[in-house]
C-alpha cells in the first residue's frame, strides 16, 4: 500500500513536468513563441534546453509590448541583466531577438520591459536545462 502511494506520487510529479512550482511549456527546438497581451505572456513559464535560443513574440494586445530575458535574482535597486530581447512591438506585430541569444542552464525571467507592465504581471519564468 505504501509502495503504491509512492508510485502514484511519482506519476503526479511526472505529469506536473518539473516537480512542483509552476508548470512549464517544454520547448525542444529552441524557439520561444510567446504571445503578448495586457498584461500577460502566453505561455507564462517555459523550459528549454541550454544553447542558442530564438524569440518569436507576437503582440496580440492593444498597447505596445516587448519580450526580454532577464536575470532572475538581483540585489534590491540593482538593474537586472538582460540576456536577450525583441524590439518594441506595435499591436499585431511579431518580433524576433535583436541579437543572438545563448543561455546556460539556470532560471531566468521572461518579461515585458515597457512601462510598468512587469509590475502589472506581464512576466513569466524561463528554465534552461
Ligand atoms: Cu507589455
Describe this structure in words.
With 129 residues, this protein is mainly β. It has a single domain, classed as Immunoglobulin-like. Helix content is 12%, strand content 40%. It contains one helix and eleven strands. It has one helix at residues 2-16; strands spanning 25-26, 31-37, 40-42, 45-48, 51-59, 68-71, 82-85, 94-96, 101-103, 106-111, 123-128. The strands form two sheets. A six-stranded mixed beta sheet has the order 1-4-11-10-6-7, with no helix packed on it. Strands 2, 3, 5, 8 and 9 form a five-stranded mixed beta sheet that branches. A hairpin with a 2-residue loop joins strand 2 and strand 3 (40-42). The chain is globular, with a radius of gyration of 16 Å. It starts with a helix and ends with a strand. The chain binds copper (II) ion (CU).
Bound molecules: copper (II) ion
Q: Please state the second-level CATH architecture.
A: Sandwich
**DSSP summary, beta strand count:** 11
Provide the CATH top-level class: Mainly Beta
Cα-to-Cα separation, first versus last residue: 35 Å
Structural class: mainly beta
Fold topology:
Layout lengths: L1 H15 L8 E2 L4 E7 L2 E3 L2 E4 L2 E9 L8 E4 L10 E4 L8 E3 L4 E3 L2 E6 L11 E6 L1
Parallel strand pairs: 1-4, 2-5, 4-11
Antiparallel strand pairs: 2-3, 5-8, 5-9, 6-7, 6-10, 10-11
Bound molecules: copper (II) ion.
List the main descriptive attributes of the protein structure presented here.
single chain, about 130 residues, Immunoglobulin-like, six-stranded mixed β-sheet, five-stranded mixed β-sheet, globular, binds copper (II) ion
